[in-house]
Design the sequence.
């Protein structure tokens, strides 16, 4: 009996998830690509990986210097 109740609860959760997914607004892939390109172009001057860093110290990806004390 507990197995049936558990299975029923699981099926209800799956059904609820499918309903949520079906309600998601969909757009054509071509429109999504255009939106992504527009987003990138609007922000490319802020992207340090595209334009570089103003100085080496501003680069969080630079190799850290090693210091050895003997």
Sequence:
């Amino acid at each position: 009996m507990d197995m049936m109740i558990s299975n029923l609860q699981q099926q209800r959760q799956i059904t609820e998830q499918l309903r949520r997914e079906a309600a998601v607004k969909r757009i054509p892939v071509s429109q999504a690509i255009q939106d992504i390109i527009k987003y990138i172009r609007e922000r490319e001057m802020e992207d340090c990986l595209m334009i570089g860093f103003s100085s080496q110290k501003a680069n969080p990806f630079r190799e850290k210097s090693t210091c050895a004390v003997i």
Helices lie at 2-22, 29-43, 48-51.
